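Slide 14.
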Amino acid sequence: MSLSLLTPRLVSTRQLVAIRAASGHVLKADQTLSINEKGFFKYERDVSRDKRYSNPQKLGDTPARFLFRKLGHAYEIYPLFVLTGVWAVLFCYVVYYSFEKTEIWLDRSSTVAPWDWERIRNNYWKKPTLVFDPEGVTHKRLEIMETLQDEMMAAAKQRGTR
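Slide 15: predicted structure.
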């Protein structure tokens, strides 16, 4: 449906009469601004980011000044800064911990994937698996699994699929 068909339905006739009457109305009063006060306008250059001036103190012109300019008396936002700092530290830890896992393949210089048995055989038990593992249950070598994986690798090479 086009706009020309919608417009008569959206605007009532009373609104159309009011709009047309207002558009033709001419104001009789003076529409200029008159100032009775004496003085002058002082135009200055904004030097807040000009490197030629040393630390021009303009409040809120940079993100750091905007965030930290009222810390001396705005004690109610201290918990927000603490929570933001804790969140940032935890976020960095989780990102670091996630990239230490085997499943993420960042170094593509090797044609063998990081989860391939030939590449991970000597350090699979050292990789992080759980965030909280105080007994180190997930960081033990499994000899039975190693022999099984070695046999499977030998069989795959014998078949020619490796």
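Speaker note: The chain has a mean pLDDT of 77.
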